[in-house]
Design brief:
There is one protein chain. This protein is of the alpha/beta class and about 260 residues long. The chain has 11 helices and 8 strands. Helix 2 links the parallel strand 2 and strand 3. The protein is globular, with a radius of gyration of 17 Å. About 50% of the residues are buried. It binds zinc ion.
């Protein structure tokens, strides 16, 4: 039986990570977020197998917007398939932050986008709606029932981790849910020892869905393939990821949650 590697759709990795350190991730595919364009620039100079560097503009990054330029963002986004971490925050949802987030989303069509919305869910959904953005993954989403419904209407996906309570996980449509660690945040709660360590999350999802951990693992890639199609991102996606997504789908629909 072909074993799928671990998938982590939102983690933070030092841009100077070494080949030896990456080897300890055991073949995991990790969507490695950056918070500023400078961090993204440094990360891109350090390509590593299994690490997919994203170009980010984190709302909470100190001095993140001081030297921010749309032209620089577009240059770094280049032909890549992945943008993140972007979004708004309870402490960063001023007009300027919203304008920047809108510019970022408009410049990120045809890409997968990992979006932060802590304490600013309505504002984030508003801008996603205004820009008709597809390919959005709402990371560690803690919206209300109504906000989840609105996010689904807007075509959003969700990345979840083992620190999220069962009732929150159950409130999200399983066929739009992807795994994350948000490493190194809240490590004691996510129980992730490193980026790509999604074992605790998979055990939780296996318990909630009554699917085997192997099936849960495979379903992540089916969902990822659906996201790729939905975001019209397929020609930008690295071959290894595209192959995993199609191997997982195998022409069969994913299992229902209930
Ligand atoms: Zn993050």
């Amino acid at each position: 039986v072909f074993a799928f590697p671990a998938l982590d759709c939102h983690a933070h990795v030092d841009p100077t990570v070494t080949r030896a350190q990456v080897a300890t991730l055991q073949g995991a595919h990790v969507f490695a977020m950056t918070r500023t364009l400078d961090e993204a620039r440094r990360a891109q100079r350090n390509p590593q197998p299994g690490l997919h560097w994203a170009v980010g503009t984190h709302p909470g990054a100190p001095r993140g917007l001081e030297n921010w330029e749309l032209r620089d963002f577009k240059g770094l986004a280049g032909s890549g398939f992945l943008v993140g971490e972007i979004g708004l925050d309870r402490r960063a949802s001023s007009t300027r932050h919203r304008d920047t987030f809108r510019d970022v989303l408009r410049a990120s069509s045809g890409r997968v986008k990992s979006v932060h919305s802590a304490g600013a869910v309505n504002q984030v959904l508003e801008v996603i709606d205004e820009t008709s953005s597809r390919g959005v993954i709402l990371h560690w989403f803690l919206g209300s029932r109504d906000q989840v419904d609105r996010a689904v209407e807007l075509g959003c996906f969700f990345s979840v981790n083992a620190a999220m309570p069962d009732e929150v996980l159950r409130s999200l449509p399983y066929e739009r849910v992807l795994p994350e660690t948000d490493f190194p945040a809240s490590r004691s709660k996510t129980r992730a020892s490193k980026p790509g360590d999604i074992r605790a999350l998979e055990a939780t999802v296996s318990r909630l869905t009554r699917l085997s951990p192997e099936r849960v693992r495979r379903n992540w890639y089916i969902t990822l393939g659906r996201l790729f199609r939905d975001a019209a991102v397929e020609e930008r996606v690295p071959t290894a990821l595209a192959q995993l997504a199609s191997a997982a789908a195998g022409g069969r629909p994913p299992d229902p949650l209930r």
